[in-house]
Structure formats: structure tokens, C-alpha cells
């Protein structure tokens, strides 16, 4: 009897000591040995000193969650061996966007594996599937298509610099009341296409396109509750460089990458609406009003991206009057809109 009581007392003291140490560790330092980072989501949680059992998140990012929830960001859950679809091809990809899940006020459940496929006893977490933590089922992810030029990268600025240096024709962003270059450059459509393909072969294109501010960090957060894919009108002729550029600036964030091959010198083109429908995309983020209307007319919600209110071509036409089209001016607004759509 005395031994049992002594054991119970020792166990109680050990539990208290562990809780206090864990509280101090979580309050002061991120995990550095086996975890890439640690996020505290509310001051009330810190004050509670782990009074309730927190949910552990084995994703690499964090999801918007309520108070008293603990998120651990794993550095071990890269999807090694993952494959990414590029149009009709399947290619070996760098680590794809990880899936972050969380639970509230429930026991911690660690997976049998920590990696591309997490198994927690209730089932596997594969790319695109749900993961159940202690009777808490995550909602279905939003399927989001993302444009490249003027949404992920500043294509037009680099193109204008090339046109000025090569053809002594100076143009500013404010002149592009429509995103059809021949109308701005006062040349034929064929001549404009030839100039653009010349641009593709230069360092202006290969090194001069810079990411849109805020895009990478916003997409990293969005990847926790969105399945992200690229849908671009870019030509097949620049497919390889585009893939390299995306992997350099937006590594592992996109599941699939599709090219419309619009305004190409050869090969067939494919409408963005058709690509988005094949993906099951619920939302398109694009700067072109024509594509916005094309997709909105088949029931896809569109965030019309007008960065810093500086894209004249976004301000013409009837796109913004469509009930499924919403104007956004930066990636923070994109994130806010998608969070609103994701909430039940």
C-alpha cells in the first residue's frame, strides 16, 4: 500500500515537473532538434500554462485556428518521392506543398510515419486526402488555380525594358489599358508575338522577372488549406524555364502546372476555363478580365488581381460586375478572401 501511494505521488510530481518544463520551453524557444518551428496562436494559451491538452500539427505550416491549440511545424514531413503533374506529363518534383492539420483540446496523436504519408490510426494522409485526428475531420481543401504573369511575377516590367532597349519604344505600365501588346505597341499581332518570343531568349526574361511582393509567404500559408495549381497562358516554348522559375521562387507550393499556350507561334492553345474545369478548380487568381469572365461564366469564383491598383487592364470591361469576380490589390487581400471562403 505504501509503495503504491509513493508511486502515485512520484508520478504526480513527475507530471507537474514535465508540464512546467514544457510550458517554459514552448514559451521561450522553438523546437530545434526534430521540428522546424513552433507557433503560439494566442496569449490566452500561454497564460493557461498547458492547462488543456493541445493538438499537435505535423504539417510544415500553420493553419488559422482558435485559441488553446498548439501547432508544431515539422521539418521531416517533406513529400520525398512526390510527383507533380505538368499538363499531361507526370514529373518527379521537388518537395510538394505539405498538409497542415490541427486539433483542438484533444489528445496528441502521432502518426506511424512522419513524411509524405502520415498514418494516424484512422487512415493515411496522402496528397489531397483528409487526415483525421482524434475524431476531428478536417474540411475539404479549396482547389485554387493561380496565374503566373503579373500575379506571381512582374512579367510586363521586364518586357517593357526589353522593348525599350531593343526597339527604342518606351512604354509604361499605365499605357496597358488592355493586355494585348500589339494594341499598345502599334504593330500587328504577328509582329508582337515575334517580339515576345525574342524576349524569351534574352536575360530580360530569364533573369529580369521578379516575384510579386507578398506572394510566396501568402501561398505558403494558403497551402495549409488549399490545393494550389498553376494555370498560365504561357507558351509551351518557355515551359522548362517557367518550371525552373516557379521552383526557384515558389518551391514545393504547386501540385500541378498547366500551360495554355496562348499567342504561341506554333502548337494548339487551351482555354483557361477548360484547364480550370479539368482541375476541379473552385477559384482562379488572375489579372486578366477576359480570363476572369471566361471562368466566372462557368461557375468558377475569380479573384481579379490588380496589384497595388496599378494594372490599367484590370479596370476595363465588365468583369468586376460579375457576381463571381472580386477585385483584390495584393496577396494579403487574396489570403483574406480565401480564408473567408474556407470558413464554414
Please give a handful of descriptors for the protein shown.
5'-nucleotidase activity; HAD_sf; globular; alpha/beta; single chain; 344 residues; 11 helices; Rossmann fold; eight-stranded mixed sheet
Element layout with pairings:
Layout: H1 2-28, E1 35-40, H2 43-48, E2 70-74, E3 83-86, E4 89-92, E5 118-119, E6 124-125, E7 132-133, E8 136-137, E9 142-146, H3 155-167, H4 181-185, H5 189-200, H6 203-208, H7 215-222, E10 226-232, H8 239-249, E11 256-259, H9 272-279, E12 283-286, H10 289-296, E13 301-305, E14 325-328, H11 331-342
Parallel strand pairs: 3-11, 9-10, 9-12, 10-11, 12-13, 13-14
Antiparallel strand pairs: 1-2, 3-4, 5-6, 7-8
Pfam family, one: NT5C
GO molecular function: 5'-nucleotidase activity
Active site: 147, 149
Question: Mind explaining what this structure looks like?
Answer:
It is a single chain. The protein is of the alpha/beta class and 344 residues long. It has a domain at 142-154 and 211-342: 3-Layer(aba) Sandwich (Rossmann fold), CATH 3.40.50.1000. Helix content is 34%, strand content 16%. It has 11 helices and 14 strands. The chain has helices spanning 2-28, 43-48, 155-167, 181-185, 189-200, 203-208, 215-222, 239-249, 272-279, 289-296, 331-342, and strands at residues 35-40, 70-74, 83-86, 89-92, 118-119, 124-125, 132-133, 136-137, 142-146, 226-232, 256-259, 283-286, 301-305, 325-328. The strands form 4 sheets. It has an 8-stranded mixed β-sheet, with helices on both faces. Strands 1-2 form a two-stranded antiparallel sheet. A hairpin with a 2-residue loop joins strand 3 (83-86) and strand 4 (89-92). Helix 7 packs parallel to helix 11. The longest helix has 27 residues, at 2-28.
Amino acid at each position: 500500500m505504501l509503495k503504491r501511494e509513493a508511486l502515485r505521488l512520484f508520478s504526480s510530481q513527475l507530471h507537474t515537473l514535465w508540464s512546467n518544463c514544457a510550458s517554459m520551453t514552448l514559451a521561450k524557444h522553438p523546437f530545434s532538434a526534430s521540428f522546424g518551428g513552433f507557433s503560439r496562436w494566442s496569449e490566452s494559451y500561454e497564460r493557461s500554462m498547458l492547462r488543456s491538452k493541445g493538438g499537435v500539427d505535423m504539417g510544415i505550416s500553420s493553419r488559422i485556428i482558435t485559441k488553446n491549440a498548439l501547432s508544431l511545424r515539422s521539418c521531416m514531413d517533406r513529400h520525398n518521392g512526390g510527383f507533380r503533374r505538368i499538363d499531361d506529363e507526370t514529373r518527379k518534383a521537388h518537395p510538394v506543398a505539405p498538409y497542415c492539420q490541427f486539433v483542438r483540446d484533444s489528445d496528441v496523436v502521432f502518426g506511424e510515419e512522419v513524411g509524405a504519408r502520415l498514418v494516424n490510426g484512422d487512415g493515411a494522409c496522402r496528397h489531397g486526402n483528409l487526415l483525421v485526428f482524434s475524431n476531428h475531420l478536417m474540411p475539404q481543401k479549396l482547389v485554387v488555380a493561380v496565374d503566373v504573369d503579373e500575379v506571381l511575377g512582374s512579367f510586363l516590367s521586364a518586357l517593357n525594358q526589353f522593348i525599350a532597349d531593343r526597339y527604342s519604344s518606351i512604354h509604361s505600365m499605365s499605357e496597358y489599358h488592355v493586355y494585348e501588346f500589339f494594341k499598345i505597341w502599334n504593330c500587328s499581332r504577328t509582329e508582337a508575338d515575334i517580339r515576345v518570343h525574342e524576349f524569351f531568349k534574352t536575360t530580360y526574361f530569364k533573369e529580369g522577372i521578379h516575384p510579386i511582393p507578398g506572394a510566396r509567404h501568402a501561398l505558403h500559408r494558403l497551402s495549409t488549406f488549399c490545393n494550389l495549381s498553376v494555370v498560365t497562358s504561357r507558351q509551351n516554348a518557355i515551359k522548362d524555364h517557367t518550371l525552373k522559375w516557379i521552383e526557384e521562387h515558389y518551391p514545393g507550393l504547386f501540385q500541378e502546372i498547366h500551360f495554355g499556350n496562348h499567342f504561341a507561334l506554333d502548337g494548339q492553345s487551351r482555354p483557361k476555363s477548360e484547364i480550370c474545369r479539368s482541375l476541379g478548380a473552385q477559384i482562379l487568381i488572375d489579372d486578366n478580365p477576359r480570363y476572369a469572365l471566361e471562368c466566372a461564366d462557368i461557375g468558377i469564383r475569380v479573384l481579379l488581381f490588380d496589384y497595388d491598383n496599378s494594372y490599367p487592364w484590370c479596370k476595363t470591361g465588365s468583369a468586376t460586375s460579375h457576381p463571381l469576380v472580386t477585385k483584390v490589390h495584393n496577396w494579403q487581400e487574396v489570403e483574406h478572401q480565401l480564408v473567408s471562403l474556407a470558413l464554414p
